[in-house]
């Protein structure tokens, strides 16, 4: 069974630009969560999607948005990038009645 | 406010000895706890979990202890191996609540020296 796949692996953008990150969950998993990891801040929850609907949302500004498609693939968008958005963005999926998250390798975003 | 705290940013132990990683939480509604391990440039991988109805769960070299009254859990690794060197994240969940997402601590970087 293939794991969680995130693309691209690395991304370099400049301030003010926007970016879209992609995540394909494990086959059969309908829940996809996104986390931001920065040095010293751990993993901070962005949002969770389930069956194309946002089910939970963390404390991030509206510049951070996401969506989920009917095949459970998810995208995360960040608009008007700021230097502080530089981070590792992790996607994770989980199966039904299972709180264990399976993470992808992440997208390392650098904002210059 | 941090609901899950890992107060030690780093820990160094000798190969073969015990590693003890600690985690404290503030939300008494948390009833399920997990430990994840993360190597650089990789996503976190699940290590071990424990439900609040238990006070101990063991899996090979890894044991997690939960003290609900103290709102404290710990991960013991015995014996520690150099390959255990990684960042360890503690995570908590209110399984029955509406906020179903995992809340993570900031992590503890474990270095196991040969």
Describe this structure in words.
The complex is a heterodimer of chains A (112) and B (114). By secondary structure, chain A is mostly beta strands. Chain A is 0% helix and 54% strand. Chain A contains no helices and 11 strands. Chain A has strands at 5-7, 10-13, 19-24, 31-38, 42-50, 53-57, 64-68, 74-78, 87-94, 102-103, 107-111. In chain A, the strands form 2 sheets. In chain A, strands 2, 4, 5, 6, 9, 10 and 11 form a 7-stranded mixed β-sheet that branches. Chain A has a 4-stranded antiparallel β-sheet with strand order 1-3-8-7, with no helix packed on it. Chain B is an all-beta fold. Chain B contains no helices and 11 strands. In chain B, the strands form 2 sheets. In chain B, strands 2, 4, 5, 9, 10 and 11 form a 6-stranded mixed β-sheet that branches.
Describe this protein with a few key phrases.
heterodimer, A: 112 residues, mainly beta, seven-stranded mixed sheet, four-stranded antiparallel sheet, 11 strands, globular, B: 114 residues, six-stranded mixed sheet, five-stranded antiparallel sheet
Question: Care to count the β-strands of chain B?
Answer: 11
List how many beta strands of chain A DSSP finds: 11
Shape of chain A: globular
Q: Biggest interface, and residues per chain? A: A-B, 25 and 25 residues
What portion of residues of chain B belong to β-strands? over 45%
Low-confidence stretches of chain B: none
**Approximately how much helix is present in the residues of chain B?**
under 10%
List the helices and strands and how they pair.
The complex is a heterodimer of chains A (112) and B (114).
Chain A: E1 5-7, E2 10-13, E3 19-24, E4 31-38, E5 42-50, E6 53-57, E7 64-68, E8 74-78, E9 87-94, E10 102-103, E11 107-111
Chain B: E1 4-5, E2 10-14, E3 19-25, E4 32-38, E5 45-51, E6 56-59, E7 62-67, E8 72-77, E9 86-93, E10 103-104, E11 108-113
């Amino acid at each position: 069974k293939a794991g969680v796949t995130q693309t691209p692996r690395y991304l370099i953008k400049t301030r003010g630009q926007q970016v879209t990150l992609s995540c394909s969950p494990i086959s059969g998993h309908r829940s996809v969560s996104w986390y931001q990891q920065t040095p010293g801040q751990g993993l901070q929850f962005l949002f969770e999607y389930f069956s194309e609907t946002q089910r939970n949302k963390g404390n991030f500004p509206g510049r951070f948005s996401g969506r989920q498609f009917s095949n459970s693939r998810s995208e995360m968008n960040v608009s008007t990038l700021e230097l502080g958005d530089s981070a590792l963005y992790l996607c994770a999926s989980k199966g039904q009645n299972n709180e264990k998250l399976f993470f992808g390798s992440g997208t390392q975003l650098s904002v210059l | 406010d941090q609901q899950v705290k890992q107060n030690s940013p780093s820990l160094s132990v000798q190969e073969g000895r015990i590693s003890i990683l600690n985690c404290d939480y503030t939300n008494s509604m948390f009833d399920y706890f997990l430990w994840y391990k993360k190597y650089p440039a990789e996503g976190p991988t699940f290590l071990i979990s424990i439900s609040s109805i238990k006070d101990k769960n063991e899996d090979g070299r890894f044991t997690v202890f939960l003290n609900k009254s103290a709102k404290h859990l710990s991960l013991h690794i015995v014996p520690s191996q150099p390959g255990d060197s990684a960042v360890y994240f503690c995570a908590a969940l209110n399984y029955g609540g509406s906020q179903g997402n995992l809340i993570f601590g900031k992590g503890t970087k474990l270095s196991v020296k040969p």
